[in-house]
Amino acid sequence: MTLDSIPIHVIESPPAEPGLSGNAPPLLHELAERVRRLLDSGETSAIDLGALPLTPSDLDWLRIGLGEGEIAVTLQANGESTLNETASPGVWWVTHRNEKGAVTSEFIEVAFVPELVKAHPQDVKIGLERLELLISDLS
Amino acid sequence: MKGPLIDTLVRQGVSRRTFMKYCATLASMMALPPSAGLAMAEAMASARRPSVIWLPFQECTGCTESITRSHSPTLEGMIFDLISLDYQETLMAAAGHQAEEARHNAMKENAGKYLLIVDGSIPLDLDGAYSCIGGRSNVDILKEAAEGCAAIVAMGSCASFGGIPKANPNPTGAVSVSDVIKDKPIVNIPGCPPIPVVMTGVLAHYLTFGSLPELDAKGRPKAFYGETIHDRCYRRPFYDQGKFAKTFDDEGARQGWCLFELGCKGPVTYNACATTKWNGGTSWPVESGHGCLGCSEPDFWDAGGFYKALSMPADPLKIAAAAAVAGAAVGVGLSFANRAKKGAAKAAHETTTLADLEK
Prior knowledge:
The complex is a heterodimer of chains A (139) and B (359). Chain A has 139 residues and is α+β, with helices and mostly antiparallel strands. Chain A contains three helices and five strands.
């Protein structure tokens, strides 16, 4: 008797990618919901990737899936931070690094413009003072 | 320096975006929702620096070392700009009567508002004579400083639970802060030493929300002590697969298998080491190959041996049967056998087993 005579056959399933936990795909549904809310009411939100049980492979899977958009913002503040638009406008991949280049926190932000990119009115005021100083130096 | 915090930071060349980035990371570490980062930045930027008095009692200064050894200029270093540390014996320039005066002034000027940090346990035997500062006992100073404080942070396992000074037979009658003070909010930050970011996280929470974070049954902030080391350990999958290192130098140890059988106290220890790690995120005890000692739990020193597994999967039936027949003599015999084996292992450079470590 050979194995073939057993009437149950195993269907070859594609081998799962090593390191994938299966926790990343549901995030896409959540992101879609958040983008809908952004469109409907302008509500911005963020997902803290550090708070979720995602493996490095999961993060890569997400990053590749979301793709790259047109805008990539680099912020130099106590280490480099990158705020990159994904292929879906309104969805931003935000990575904060310390001065040694290690990732300190990572978010997916859903907003027209990430909060950190906007200038604070208080800082704009200080900027205006500087401009006025420049102008007064002209005369 | 008084005035809104952001002004102080700007004077030191810290931009608002740097601060917002810091708050976002801090909120993430404290397991707060991402929106809290922005709220924290807003609240903290306009907050005034609270006065902090740090009292060292029966301690080894390891807690202070931990806080100040955070890699500068980091998040942890930055937060020390956010408070006005008015009394800290190890760090302050003033000494003697000047130092004591600084403490009294801070207590008077900020009555009812200052935050009191305590590290070290408080000895009560011989009227507290085992540990005195400026001729006054620790318990006396603590009671005086606690009266006008808004809240107390018990830093480290000694202040939280009595720690190593309280270890059996507790020669000085050491007790924790919460054993002495009953009428103030107390947050325990145990660990030997505690993780720097846990300390700064609690301070940030206090600055932002004006209250202490949510605490567990042992008075520890849930954000950092909400899960066991075991539940967050990167070696956990090996535990689930039943793959254990049997000695510190066997194949399993080299493969990074679970250290449970080598006495790891991870399953019963609540702390954040597995996620925040140590020395700027470099590593932590289990990652460097040694089991967790359980240093953030009460009486960890007397918990029955660092190398003793929490529940031995050994062969209890055989030992029980042998003991019933031969009585106490077996114990002596076993001990001799183990000593002989230890000597032989040394001579032959053999692998030392868990049983050897326990004899």
